[in-house]
Amino acid sequence: MHETSFLILSALAARPLHGYGIIQSVVDLSDGEVKLRPGTLYGALDRLADQGLIGVDREEAVDGRLRRYYRLNDAGATALAVQAQRLHRRASVAERLLDGRAGLAGGAA
Fold first, then answer.
1. Which end of the chain, N or C, is less packed with Cβ atoms under 10 Å?
2. Percentage of residues in the chain with pLDDT exceeding 90?
3. 15 with 74: CB under 8 angstroms?
4. Helix (H, G, I), strand (E, B) or coil at 98
5. How far is Cα 7 from Cα 86, in angstroms, rounded to an integer?
6. CA-closest candidate to residue 49, choices 99, 106, 8, 2
7. Residue 107, helix vs strand vs coil
8. Predicted TM-score of the model (pTM)
9. What is the torsion angle, in degrees rounded to the nearest 10, for the CA atoms of residue 9, residue 12, residue 28 and residue 66?
10. Is the pLDDT score of 9 beyond 70?
């Protein structure tokens, strides 16, 4: 799973959001490191919907424009949980390997 998809699914884990809400949530979740452009976001939302991981929660008109809210479905929650566990295992391995380097502090860099 790409980082963008992971962050979008994470943003939708707590509640349904509209596009701008997802963009803002991704910025927050990534500590400002990932800033999605609308074209990137909506392409990813289409792919996630095609994969059966998200769906449209509702639509509402705001200032004459249609605002669509997306929600994480059960398949998306499962995929997000699996990916989070996978990333956690990978990070744990990296941390153990880095801890092993601590004993090499006096060695060459």
1. C
2. 85
3. no
4. helix
5. 15
6. 8
7. coil
8. 0.86
9. 120
10. yes
